[in-house]
Design a protein that fits this description.
With about 600 residues, this protein is an alpha+beta fold. It folds into three domains: about 10-105, Nucleic acid-binding proteins (OB fold (Dihydrolipoamide Acetyltransferase, E2P), Beta Barrel); about 140-280 and about 430-560, Bira Bifunctional Protein, Domain 2 (BirA Bifunctional Protein, domain 2); about 295-420, Gyrase A, domain 2 (2-Layer Sandwich). Helix content is about 30%, strand content about 25%. Strand 2 (about 35-40) and strand 3 (about 45-50) form a beta hairpin. The N and C termini lie far apart (about 65 Å). It binds aspartic acid. The site of aspartic acid has 8 residues, from strand 21 and strand 22.
Amino acid sequence: MKRTHHCNELRPAHVGQTVTLSGWVHSRRDLGGVIFIDVRDREGRTQTVFDPSDLPKALFEQAAGLRSECVISVAGKVRQRPDGTINPKIATGEVEVLVQSLEVLNYADVLPFQVDDPEAAAKVNEELRLQYRYLDLRRPEMARNLRLRSKVAIATRAFMDEQGFLEVETPTLFKSTPEGAREFIVPCRTNPGLFYALPQSPQQFKQILMVAGVEKYFQLARCYRDEDLRADRQPEFTQIDIEMSFIERQDIYDVIEGLLKRVWKTALNVELPTSFKRITFQEALDRYGIDKPDTRFGMELADFTEEFRASTFKVFSGAIANGGVVKAINAKGLACVTQGQIEAMTETAKGFGAKGLAYIKVEGGEWKSPIVKFFSAAEKDALAKKLAMAEGDLILFAADQWLNACEILGKIRLYCADVLKAQGKLVVDPNRFDFLWVVDFPLLSFDKEMNRWYSSHHPFTAPVAEDIPLLKQDPKKVRGQHYDVVVNGVELGGGSIRIHQRDVQKTIFEDILAIPPDMVTARFGYMLEAFRYGAPPHGGIALGFDRMIAILCGTPSIRDVIAFPKTAKGTCLMTDSPGGVEPKQLRDLHLELKVGKKE
Ligand code: ASP
């Protein structure tokens, strides 16, 4: 029985036609001797009716024995549903198929969890869903995510093609390079003792493609990072990877704005602005305390360094005398904060090395706080004015070095926003997308423990031209030509204009990052060599594809938009990977295991 229609196709116009549908038994209801089976396929579902007065007994009994998720084909006549039985919730809800024949294509055992009910599915624990991923993916919500992902991938390729980009595949067997994250390594049987590494990104290959004259490259690239997994990380993930020659930062902004505009239109029918706002790293930290600000709500950081410079409150004036700053936020309506919430925020501040968390509650017309008694009238005035303090407000302070103070309040700002959202006092429109570019990041950051500089982005990022003279004198002042694209507080991607001059790249590796010259040669020698033979100026970016799809699907977890994701422990519960190997395989690879071996 070959299917004539899919399960989301039949409408009143089909009434009277004989059709064949194939799919899964979504649900079965036995009502007054008549059996109703909703047949579901990828597209949707259709109600079919088994009426014993019309059917051979054996066929009816076969239908009565069908369980959820059995695979069937049914043929029958489309008819209008009787009045009062129309289901407006599904597209085929006005019709049903009166079954004339049934073929059972396969039976299903009792399921480990239900797939026909989104509310029940939401309660199923994720481990079970991952173990039976093929059932989980049958759920319409998950099927919708996969479909949207496919649509966006195709729209991306079409857009990039229109813009003249070539899709080039780069190797996934690469070699170890210190790009930041820990790598997966792959032993090489034919070269005893040597290893490939899975690429953290195609960074070096895409730059070499520019030297090769490709000019405009993109790839939906699989990347691998062997990091301790956080909730929204996966050991393998996909990014939209892009590189272009003969460009400036603005060219990247144009391409990405165009691409995201196309993607948002395709996926959600939402029109994004043609150009996104820009904010410097400095301003993002100053105002939001984070380099990926969620600008859908205010609660901005205010600076009180000048006001408290000469204060008798030593916690503040002392921090300022040490070169620090005093900053505060007003969490409007949060004077009702609980002791537990204050403790949680204090822990956050302590995590940054602060001794505690100063705050003021505005309650019953009074400022309630042990520190207020130390404040002068002028200091109080300044606070009240700049923070627009009113009844019910909660003011939170940080007095520390600039970056620390900003970051403490940045974290607390997001925490307060979550509490206020849960209380219904802060409403954020779920259909609002605040895109922005964060620019002018510091090129280098200092690692106190290791006592050396490291690249804030990666070592291939070019300094802002006018800052190059500062590289050796005052590295922390050097800005990188690095940009991040952020939406609603999520970093969607980042990239940079690259160094294309061999000597500048060598200086960064050897003099600034203090990588020993023989290691530079071993790891990047081929790149420095390539730069000798006419490397064009170039730059690029990578967007997190999984994360973007998760945002478009409105799910907080990237696992919901990856067909077969790993758990937070890096395991696949369906295939039970990673798994062991046979001793012979180890011998072939010239490897010996220490784990599980008695010394
Ligand atoms: N390779 C970088 C990353 O994966 C992105 C880029 O600089 O293009 O983060």
